[in-house]
Amino acid sequence: MAxxxxxxxxxxxxxxxxxxxxxxxxxxxxxxxLVDLTDASCCPAPGVIRAxxxxxxFAAAARNLALAERMGxxxxxxxxxxxxxxxxxxHELNSNKEMLDQVNEILAKIxxxxxxxxxxxxxxxxxxxxxxxxKIAAACSKKLDYxxxxxxxxxxxxxxxxxxxxxxxxxxVLDELVEATGCKSLPRKQKxxxxxxxxxxxAAFGDVAKQFAQTNLENMKESGARFIVDVCPFCHLQFDTxxxxxGFDIPxxxxxxxxxxxxxxxxxxxxxxAHKVPVKL
Length: 281
Description:
Elements: E1 2-7, H1 11-15, H2 17-29, E2 32-36, H3 46-52, H4 54-71, E3 75-77, H5 80-93, H6 97-107, E4 120-122, H7 123-131, H8 133-139, E5 147-150, H9 160-163, H10 173-179, E6 184-185, H11 201-204, H12 206-223, E7 227-230, H13 233-246, E8 252-254, H14 255-262
Helix pairs in contact: 2-14, 3-4, 4-5, 4-6, 12-13
């Protein structure tokens, strides 16, 4: 059984507990063991902290990486932002001794040391590589037939030269993972467009962030999608909380929740009560 240190991030446990619950249930059914990363902090969000102090960002990320290193496990995340932050920090620190030494000088003040060995993976990438769409389909007790607007977000695939998950301009991984349930991933314009919430954009330029969301939602509605399926709680939050003001009502699901539906989880366990846009199955 594959075993990972489970990095929750901030948004899922605080705003959408059903994403966490469905991830745990789905991973157990698919033979992936998740071990809680006790005492973890924010990843931290690169669009905020890194913009002001790269060294501080490295140190905060390295503390999380060090927790997993002590456990002897790689990290798995359910959030694109957490994945982007931890993956990029690990990638650089694991190959840059000078920066690693600087970071460890800071971490020494709180009794932490990072050796630079932790690997970081995204939940969806793990499912695709280690389980595969065929085994996922076999684990689904209920075949679904929804039309889906698959949303990749920014940090799942990019920077593609160091992640190497899929073609960043014409990706297929999430489409195949969604279609393992029997659903259909519907084609649409600007499929890889940003949701608008990352990099501090939503906080600093709310109108611009809302325009990104509106463009995405217009394209999704035009495609005829019944649901939006994402792999990032932050993208999830952006769509779920902005649709009412923008005049849309396309329910939003994290990939783990879609799998939870196909594996027979109840609406309460899926956490659908926390969604602003009602999810009608």
